[in-house]
Specification:
By secondary structure, the chain is an alpha+beta fold. The chain folds into 3 domains: about 70 residues, no CATH class; about 40 residues; about 120 residues, no CATH class. It has a 6-stranded antiparallel barrel.
């Protein structure tokens, strides 16, 4: 029997001997097999996501416990707030803020007094004769009747050092000055000896913002007039070319 005849015999057996119900069951089985293959593909696609979800579940549980604890604390806090009316809470908070403000102000004043005392201890004594003599020389410099070179007292030229800008709102501002040879610097100092002296705004520079920082009355619109009335500040040398204002 050749292949063609064998095929024909199988077909005849299929149509003649197999019951229609069986043929239907076989067709359904084939369809179910297709659906099973599709489900297997879906499961394979979902598997990494399921694994990731299983990894996240412990973290979610931990967060759930944390949120529960915070909710309990919040409920307790709400019960506490319900003890007082809105106006009572406002009065209570205002009273607490007033108390804190007074405490902070008192602490700041005490700190300033301590710092002031420490600074006073470090201020060198400037003789009255020296101060009066310097005042006369400074006025001559302002009027152009004298130059730095012809001054009988040693003059140093000074500018602000970057350390001046360091510090906090609660601490007293400390001014540091660099000694320079640049005549256009905003300050000059008259040396009583090699380590201390008196500070003035520069008589040859009309005005800079740093002048107002140390000598508050000296402003752009009144610089020439105010320089003639300025009160000098005591300075001390703390390094070879670094000076510090110790009174202001």
């Amino acid at each position: 029997m050749n292949i063609k005849e064998e095929r024909q015999r199988i077909l005849e057996l299929w149509y003649n001997n197999i019951k229609p119900e069986a043929r239907g069951d076989l067709s359904n089985l084939w369809e179910h097999r297709q659906e099973l293959g599709e489900l297997e593909a879906i499961v394979e696609d979902l598997e990494p996501k399921v694994i990731k979800l299983l990894e996240v579940i412990p973290t979610l549980k931990r967060h759930s416990h944390e949120y529960h604890a915070r909710t309990v604390d919040l409920v307790k806090l709400l019960h506490h707030f319900n003890k007082y009316s809105k106006d009572e809470w406002i009065q209570k908070v205002t009273s607490d803020l007033d108390y804190m403000s007074k405490e902070i102000t008192q602490a700041r004043n005490q700190a300033e007094e301590i710092l002031k005392g420490k600074m006073q201890k470090g201020i060198p004594t400037i003789s009255e004769d020296f101060a009066n003599r310097i005042k006369g020389i400074y006025h001559k410099l302002l009027g152009g009747q004298m130059t730095y070179e012809t001054s009988p007292i040693t003059i140093i030229i000074l500018k602000l050092n970057e350390k001046t800008y360091q510090g906090s709102d609660l601490s007293r501002q400390v001014y540091y000055l660099d000694q320079t040879t640049y005549n256009a610097a905003p300050f000059i100092g008259f040396c009583q000896d090699g380590n201390n002296g008196l500070l003035y705004p520069s008589p040859v520079v009309e005005y800079t913002e740093s002048m107002n920082l140390i000598f508050n009355n000296v402003r752009r619109e009144n610089a020439r007039r105010e320089k003639s009335k300025v009160t000098p500040l005591v300075i001390v040398r703390i390094e070879e070319k670094l000076w510090k204002v110790v009174s202001n």
